From TrEMBL:
SUPFAM superfamilies xref list: P-loop containing nucleoside triphosphate hydrolases
Transmembrane segments: none
InterPro entries per UniProt: AAA+_ATPase, ABC_SmlMolc_Importer, ABC_transporter-like_ATP-bd, ABC_transporter-like_CS, ABC_transpr_FbpC, P-loop_NTPase, Transp-assoc_OB_typ2
CDD domains assigned: ABC_Carb_Solutes_like
Protein name: ABC transporter ATP-binding protein
Top-level taxon of origin: Bacteria
GO molecular-function terms, A-Z: ATP binding
Pfam families: ABC_tran (PF00005), TOBE_2 (PF08402)
Keywords: ATP-binding, Cell membrane, Ion transport, Iron, Iron transport, Membrane, Nucleotide-binding, Transport
Domain ABC transporter: 4-235
């Protein structure tokens, strides 16, 4: 069942400006974690602010938990929407202890107990009397998370929650936050410009570009079947190879690819593929070959840069144990590529 739905939501800050959000419609399922991605200025923060009630759209409808919260001039005030928010800088109150931070916004009565329970839930056990500056970045973020979820919001919105953490910490925190959110069963939307965050943490990803929603789907589909070149390139560069189609396959500057699909095309095409969609094979002479220009070792894998006689280059990903010593050329095949008629 969907808990949040947006219908044709549009927002412009100033008349002379471009739309920050342009005709955006989508739904979020109950208990789902949705990542909102897109380059800087694509409208991610604006979209969260519209849902939270910190901005009002020019047109469109938003409903939360079966209630219409925005339509025309109707707007349920932010504090009545039951939306939890975690901001990029955590926005903790520096002069309050972490317990007081979490109690803020809770109704008196059982606030103390509720705040303590929530702090424990996010993995902070004894530091209740500490002040935010006495905590690490990762711990401060958990306090911010506890403060946002303690009042039992219908949905949790997080703006760039991982961007202030260093790379090593980030992998760990990301997984912990995912587990906490899943444990509480809360529906969450988090904004990120990091594709790794989105691919590994979200149930689904929505990608924005210039205020337009480009695609919304599970990570695998966005990565493997992007709807357009913008989405494809957002999730990592693709290799490009020029090819001439024939009855049996494609002629490329790296060799011939057997593919009966080629006869569907009548003029020059581009073959597009990610480094992991190729495989380096043992013997030179099979399928495609290139001159080995560079091997880059990454621990978990190696990247092999191969060039044709005209100086075009492709990158193929291969396992880390493979040795290329003494080899000048390498053969490879492609097990997946998109064909684009772009000439
Ligand atoms: P993102 O979070 O993806 O970086 P934003 O939602 O912050 O993008 O911004 C989307 C667009 O709206 C940008 O062009 C930005 O300059 C503009 N914008 C955002 N906030 C305001 C504001 N308060 N006043 C005017 N323009 C704004
Ligand atoms: Mg932003």
């Amino acid at each position: 069942m969907s808990i949040l739905s947006l219908l044709h939501v549009t927002k412009k800050y100033h008349q002379e400006q471009e739309f920050a959000i342009n005709d955006v419609s989508f739904e979020v399922e109950e208990g789902e974690i949705l990542a909102l991605v897109g380059e800087s200025g694509s409208g991610k923060t604006t979209l969260l602010r519209l849902i939270a009630g910190l901005e009002h759209p020019d047109s469109g409808m938003i409903s939360l938990s079966g209630q219409i919260i925005v339509e025309g001039i109707k707007s349920v005030p932010a504090h009545e929407r039951k939306v939890g928010m975690v901001f990029q800088d955590y926005a903790l109150f520096p002069h309050l202890t972490i317990l007081e931070n979490v109690k803020f916004g809770l109704k008196k009565g059982d606030a103390d107990q509720k705040a303590k329970e929530t702090l424990k839930l996010v993995g902070l056990n004894e530091d209740f009397k500490k002040y935010p500056h006495q905590l690490s970045g990762g711990q401060q973020q958990r306090v911010a998370l506890a403060r946002a979820i303690a009042p039992n919001p219908k949905i949790l919105l997080m703006d760039e929650p991982f961007s202030n953490l260093d790379a090593l910490l980030k992998d760990q925190v990301r997984e912990e936050i995912r587990q906490i959110i899943k444990k509480t069963g809360i529906t969450a939307i988090f904004v990120t410009h990091d594709t790794k965050d989105a691919l590994s943490t979200a149930d689904r990803i929505a990608i924005l570009h210039k205020g337009y929603l480009q695609q919304i789907d599970i990570p695998k589909v966005l990565y493997e079947n992007p709807i357009n070149p913008y989405v494809a390139n957002f999730f990592g560069k693709r290799n490009e190879m020029t090819a001439i189609p024939s009855e049996e396959g494609f002629y490329t500057t790296f060799g011939f690819i057997n593919d009966p699909e080629a006869k569907k095309y009548t003029s020059k095409v581009k073959l597009l593929f990610r480094p992991e969609h190729g495989e380096v094979v043992q013997r030179v002479g099979q399928q495609l070959t290139g001159k080995i220009e560079k091997i880059s070792y990454f621990g978990s894998h190696q990247m092999v840069k191969l060039a044709d006689d005209e100086g075009n280059r492709v990158m193929i990903r291969t396992n880390p144990g493979r040795s290329f010593e003494g080899l000048e050329r390498a053969s490879f095949y492609l097990w997946k590529y998109d064909v684009e008629e772009a000439f």
